[in-house]
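Suppose a colleague, Dr. K., hands you the sequence of a protein chain of 159 amino acids and asks what its three-dimensional shape might be. Before reaching for any lab equipment, you can write down a predicted structure in C-alpha cell form. Begin with the sequence itself:
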Amino acid sequence: MARLHEALEEDVKHGLRTDELRTFTPENINDFITRGKALMASIYGPRTDIMRAKMYSYHPDLAASIEEIYATVFASFPEESAVQGNLSRALNSVVAVACLRTEGGVVELLNGHVLGLLRARDVPGLTTEDYWLASEEGVDWVLMTVDMLLGALKSNDSD
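The predicted structure, expressed as C-alpha cells, is then:
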C-alpha cells in the first residue's frame, strides 16, 4: 500500500476519502456479518458448507475469521450507499483471482474464486462490464492479463 500511495498523483491522493467505514461498531456489526456471510455464500455457492467445514478442520475460528475479513474488507456496502472504493461483487472476485494467481501454490483457493467470479453473473443489477468479467471469456481475460503482467514484472526483476 505504501508503494501504491507513493505512486499516486497529489490530486488523486487529495480526492481519497479519509474516514473509516469498515470498522465494527455495536450499531453495524450485524450488517457487516450478514454481508460477509452473503459474500462467502455467493463466492462458494453450494460448496459453502464444505469450505466452512474444511476451514474449521484447520482451526475452529478460521471460518468465522474469513467471514469477518470478507465483511470488513471485501463485501460491498448496500447499493444505496455511494461509497468511494465500494467494489462490485464481480470486481471483488477479480481482485481475489488476481491476488491468488500471482501468489501461486494456492490452486484450490484460486479455483474456488474463479468459480466465485463466474457465480457473480447471477448477482442482480450487474453492469455490462461486470457481466462480461463474470463470463468465461472475462475470466480467461483476467487470468491472461494477470499472467502477462506477472511475466513482465518477473522479466524486469532479472534486469
